[in-house]
Sequence to fold (342 residues):
Amino acid sequence: MPEKGNGRDPRIVAWEVTRRCLLSCKHCRAGAADHAYEGELTTDECLRVLDSLAAYSQPMIIWTGGEPMCRPDISLLVRAATDRGMRSVMAPCGALVTEKTMQILENVGVMACSFSLDGATAATHDAFRGVEGAFAHVTRAMEIARKIGMPFQVNCTVSRLNVAELPAIREQAVRLGARTLDLFFLVPVGRGKALADLALPAREMEEVLRWAFEMDRAGPITVRETCAPQAVRIWESLDRPGKHPAGCMGGRGFVFLSHTGILQPCGFLDIPCGDIRQSGYDFAKAYGESAVFRALRDPNGYGPTCGRCRFRFECGGCRARAYARTGDYLAGDSSCPLSTQE
Ligand code: SF4
Ligand code: SF4
Fold:
């Protein structure tokens, strides 16, 4: 997607507009469930946030949840973002996608969707997502997106549970018409804490990343990784195949906004960095005053391993994994072999 905005950070805001969700995924960072959550930003409050974002950095908005389509005002909010010059993409679970709802979302300005596929079959995907029928819903949603011409990508959370299925998951993504397969790697927070043993160790993660580079080169779809910042180091060691991988963007170009208006560096790094309500819906104020965001923007100040590594600016290490392991978000990232215990 082309860069837009006015050059200020953040360039991307992932907005958890609701925590309500129809699924019950094993790895959910939010532990989301199918019930109303107290304190959710109202429509009027969301519009004030959009005014503030548009005036500050005009980021691309990833409408997420929970299930963003559970919000009855979701199309109104996307339209308001579009009217304010901001681009929108959305991460629905699939169950609420019909030709009509997808068409409405496209009409109000959703430019692309992401759908999660964590298994190549109904048995493995449904087991991971915690709801029977989730595979049928998400594959149907992708077929609808393809039919109406909505570009979409497949997101896959990689863990020991599905690593052997990755080639088959990629085949499904190709078959269903995805433009990209985006590999996320389990970050053991929220409900995912109980799955810490299922996170791939550093060496196995590296093998998957090498496979991803190979598959990306082979086509026909893009295969990339998200939240595996050490991909930058591996990419350099392989003579830079394809596009430069993204390092950790948490708080460095990317901000997460919770359903109650709390700013975080990303959804997995559960450190409150500002309260949009308390700032009077002034995003610039909430974002600018956070000491955590300032610390994240200075990789020289990270702990001894990542902070002295030559890849600290481009990679930076996963701050959420560091925080989950040590309680210090500036510590070393245990998913990288260069990063030792601190
Ligand atoms: S802290 Fe980790 S999970 Fe969060 S954006 Fe960075 S790499 Fe991704
Ligand atoms: S030590 Fe840290 S900064 Fe260096 S490559 Fe590993 S995760 Fe990235």
